[in-house]
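Hey, sorry to bother you again with one of my protein questions. There's a protein on my desk that I can't quite get my head around. No rush at all, and the record is pasted right below.
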Amino acid sequence: MDTTKREAETVARLEKNFSGKFGEGGDIRVYFAPGRVNLIGEHTDYNGGASLPVALDVGTYFVVRERPDRTLRFFSENFPDEGIIEGSLDDLTWSKEASWTNYPKGVMWAFEKDGHGIPHGFDILVWGNIPNGSGLSSSASVEVGTGIMLKDMTGADVDLEEIARIGQYAENNFNGVNCGILDQMAIAMGAPGQALYLRTAPFAYEHVPLDLGDARIVVASSNKKRGLGDSKYNERRAECEEALGELQQETSISSLGDLSNEEFAAHEQAIASPVRRRRARHAVSENQRTLEACSALRDGDLGKFGELMNASHVSLRDDYEVTGPELDTLVESAWEQPGVIGARMTGAGFGGCTVNIVREQDIPAFIENVGSKYLDTIGYAADFFTVNTGEGPRRLK
């Protein structure tokens, strides 16, 4: 089935389900925001470095109808047992009872703080085909999708970059996750057949052609669930900030991303703790790998790109220590398989996913062999998804 027909059938199904939950009638609109996977450049965005994510053809769908009052009613087909969760535009506060709706509510809160009014409430049905907890940014997909919906429904004058910033602000300040802007920008600026070169300090971005030839992107989900806010993500970020402060005692840098590998080696003894030194080494070297990866893609050198992916995982395992046995098993067994160009963990770590570039003819054997090794070693199964690059957020109907 082609993509257009599949999307039309999905929209029709969701509209029918929306009417079943919230009643017939009214101006019902449908929106989509993709998920993302980061090919290289991990834990660099908050260190002033570069990343290279791609938007995917899986994501989050929103079916929305404006209400005559300021009530918010949410229903997720991914969490049907939670039923309809209610809220109000007059009480946009975080609560445990609000569950997953804290993400769209957070964007509404940030949208208003950014100076854009929301005059009416909404009925919202959400369905995502991003594996929950997989590391493909389901939360950022919900945030950017909510932003696109609010822009369209209210007529607010906001561009895609601003929507990404609103989403990040909401995640930082409403949901308490100290994330960078990588996820939201990758989703907001997604384009088929393109990766997004994103540099956070100084802020810059551009699309880089992604020609995989006869290879595909295969995402392997460890199925080890992790909550980003509960992980050691904030701890790693604090370690890097402290290391930066120590380096600034003898350099004029504003971020770790300002340093080359050689410059870091010349000054690393300014960092008192060997642990913080390793954290900073990863941030610096990963930024340099990402710059080299962009050059490799522009040159059509997929082999070099794969080598940089592999080196990224080693750094994340040894210097940043965010992999763990699940992700290491997936990656190290992937390296042993025919047709694998590159493999690494992706996302925050401590569970989640790996990203693999695999020759298409070798994908069935890759999934069989890596899956078998993972089950034997870890004791439960991994899931595998062959994904395509996709468009950014948009209104479908």
User: Anything to note?
Assistant: DSSP finds eleven helices and 13 strands in the chain. The first helix runs from residue 3 to 22.
